[in-house]
Amino acid sequence: MIQFSDIYSQYYDLIYKDKQYKAEAEYINSLILEHKKDTKEILELGCGTGRYTELFCDFGYSVHGVDMSLEMLRIAEQRRIGREDRLRFTHSKIQDLDMDKKFDVIVALFHVMSYQTSNEDLIKAFQVARKHLVDGGLFIFDFWYGPAVLTNPPVVRVKRLENEKIKITRIAEPTIYPQYDIVDVNYDIFIEDKEENKIIEIKELHKMRYFFDTGLEMICNMVGFQIMNKFEWLTYKSPDLGSWYVVWETRKF
C-alpha cells in the first residue's frame, strides 16, 4: 500500500471539502504578520493540490508550492490561472529540494512534518527549510503533538461524502507504535460511481509521526532555528494534553 496514490489524489479535494482552509490560512497569516510584516514571498512544502498555496497568493504574496505527487500538482496547476505571475509549483521530495532562491517565509501545513517519520528525513527537511530562507526568515509548521496523542489515542473513524457523480466512504483504522512515536493509519476508501454503478476500492497506509517538545527543540537548535511561538492549532494558547494538533513558529538564525 502507498500514500497519496494517483486515484486518491484525484478525490483529495472532495474528501477534504469541509476543511476550513481559508480560516486556517488566515490564522497562519496572522502569525506571519506578527513577526515578519515585510513578507513578500512564501514557499510551501508539501502543498498537495494547492489549496493553501492559492489562498496565500490571494492574500498578496508570491507563493511557490512543492510536492512529491505529480497528480496533486496537476490539480494544483489549475489554480495558477489568473495568478501565473505570483503562483508556481515544483515537483520534488522535500529532502531533494534545491532551488536557487530564498524566501521570507516557509510553511509546511496539514501535518506535512508528521509525514517525515525517520530522523534522517526530519532533520533534512529542517535543513532544506533553513537553506531556502532569508536571514531572519520564518519556518511555520504544524504536527501531531505527542502528549495529546498518547493521552487521547486515535480511534477508527468513518467519513462519508458525495456529490452528484460519486459517493465516497473512507475508513481510517489507526495502529499506534509508542516505542517509535508512530501511528500507522490504514485507509480503506470506497468510491462509488453513481452513473456507472461501479465501486473502486483504494487502500493506503499513511505513517504519521507525533512529536514532543524536547525532540523538536533539539533539532531546531541543531539546525539553526529560534522557536518564536508554540500554539495549539487555530488558537494562541499553549499546547496541553488536549492539543492533538500544534503549530510552531520558528525563525532562522
Largest sheet: 11 strands, mixed
Q: What is the percent of helical residues?
A: 25-40%
Any idea what the CATH superfamily of the largest domain is called?
Vaccinia Virus protein VP39
Quote the average pLDDT.
Answer: 95
Do you know the CATH architecture of the largest domain? 3-Layer(aba) Sandwich
Helix and strand composition category = alpha/beta
- Count the domains: 2
Spatial extent as radius of gyration:
18 Å
Determine the CATH topology of the largest domain.
Rossmann fold
Q: What is the number of E strands?
A: 11
Q: Which CATH class of the largest domain? A: Alpha Beta
Task: Name the overall outline.
Answer: globular
| Fraction of residues in β-strands | 35-45%
Helix and strand sequence = HHHEHEHEEHEHEEEEHEE
Number of helices: 8
Oligomer: single chain
Low-confidence stretches: none
Give the termini distance in whole angstroms. 40 Å
Structural description of this entry:
The structure is a single chain. This protein is of the alpha/beta class. It folds into 2 domains: 6-145 and 210-252, 3-Layer(aba) Sandwich (Rossmann fold), CATH 3.40.50; 149-209, Single Sheet (S-adenosyl-L-methionine-dependent methyltransferases), CATH 2.20.130. It has helices at residues 6-10, 12-15, 21-35, 51-58, 70-77, 119-131, 146-151, 213-223; strands at 41-45, 62-67, 87-91, 103-108, 133-145, 157-162, 166-177, 182-193, 198-211, 225-232, 245-252. α3 packs across α4 (51-58). β2 (62-67), α5 (70-77) and β3 (87-91) form a beta-alpha-beta unit. Strands 1, 2, 3, 4, 5, 6, 7, 8, 9, 10 and 11 form an 11-stranded mixed beta sheet that branches. The chain is built from 8 helices and 11 strands.
